[in-house]
Design goal:
Blueprint (H helix, E strand, L loop, with lengths): L4 E5 L4 H16 L4 E9 L9 E3 L6 E3 H28 L4 E9 L1 H11 L4 E5 L15 H9 L4 E4 L1
Parallel strand pairs: 1-2, 1-6, 2-5, 6-7
Antiparallel strand pairs: 3-4
Length: 158
């Protein structure tokens, strides 16, 4: 089996750094392969989006929905900047890589991407930034959920 399309869910954790490193190693062995690093910003569902608050930055009165939009944009910009830096370093090694930042349920978005893009291999960290309380049989909830739902091979990196 050839791993031409390699997907790496990336959340900035040490485990996701190791997963990205492992994907680079694999990609060096498979001519023409391409890595995609995906970061999913977890959406916060809350019934108070119609409430108003004072902006921590400006003190102006804004809706909670406006505030959350700004928070999501800051998170997106920060992660995109970090992934773009990793992309430059990986491309300097002659490896093809795309980076993608989106919003939603991490497991669902990763599985959807892997399915829709016909990914050949998912390389995922064993435990990400979801917290120790999410461990199930030694795996993070996202890595476990993804490994159970995708149809391609999954390499879980510790």
């Amino acid at each position: 089996m050839t791993f031409n399309k390699i997907l790496v869910p990336y959340d900035g954790s040490p485990a996701s750094d190791k997963a990205l490193e492992k994907a680079v190693e694999i990609s060096k062995l498979v001519e023409g392969s391409r890595i995609t690093a995906i970061h999913v910003i977890k959406e916060i569902s809350t019934p108070v989006f119609d409430r108003v608050i004072r902006s921590p930055g400006t003190g102006e009165v804004i809706s909670f929905a406006e505030y959350m939009t700004k928070v999501y944009q800051e998170i997106r910009d920060t992660m995109q900047k970090g992934l773009d830096e990793r992309k430059r370093k990986i491309e300097a090694q002659g490896i093809s890589i795309d980076v993608f930042v989106t919003k939603g349920n991490p497991s669902d978005k990763i599985v959807d991407y892997a399915t829709n893009e016909k990914v050949d291999l998912v390389v995922i960290g064993s435990v990400g930034l979801t917290g120790v309380s999410k461990f199930v049989k030694g795996l993070g909830s996202v890595s476990r959920n993804v490994s159970e739902r995708v149809s391609c091979p999954v390499l879980i990196v510790r």
